[in-house]
Design brief:
Blueprint lengths: L1 E3 L15 E5 L13 E3 L1 H11 L4 E5 L6 H11 L5 E5 L11 H9 L14 H7 L3 H5 L1
Length: 138
């Protein structure tokens, strides 16, 4: 089962065609078990969390560009602070692991020493490698 926001099923932007904002699933959840069965979807919770946390700029890759209108729609309807959304193209660097999921796997399988290991491209890793703050900012 799901709960949809009633926007406009004929809208040119497909994300505004009455999007699902909650799903109801009667299955055990890995973290909370059977205590809860109602789950808010990312497109609904993302703008609310950004607003409540006082995020100034919500950064996301270009595949989320179509979702910007829905992001702002949620904030407008709730009449809460509206962060700026900024889409950018994906950064890929040859022979470098950039995926947070893959970096997390490398760290927790002890292939690297942690998020500050100088062999991985994190801010703390670059600092340990000796990059000055000005170079990282540039």
């Amino acid at each position: 089962m799901s709960l949809r926001a009633k926007i406009d099923y004929k809208n040119a932007n497909t994300t505004l065609r009455d999007p699902v904002i909650y799903r109801i699933k009667f299955h055990s959840h890995p973290h909370v078990g059977d205590k809860w069965c109602v789950y808010p979807l990312y497109d609904y919770t993302h703008p609310i969390c950004d607003s409540l946390e006082g995020i100034t700029h919500s950064l996301c890759s270009l595949e989320f560009e179509i979702r910007r209108e829905l992001y702002y729609w949620v904030l407008e309807k709730l009449n809460i602070y509206r962060p700026h959304v900024w889409e950018y193209s994906r950064l890929n660097i040859t022979y470098t692991v950039m995926s947070k999921r893959k970096l997390h796997e490398m760290i927790f399988s002890h292939r690297v020493r942690g998020w500050d290991d100088p062999r991985i491209l994190t801010i703390n890793g670059m600092r340990r490698r000796g990059y000055p703050a000005e170079a990282i900012n540039n």
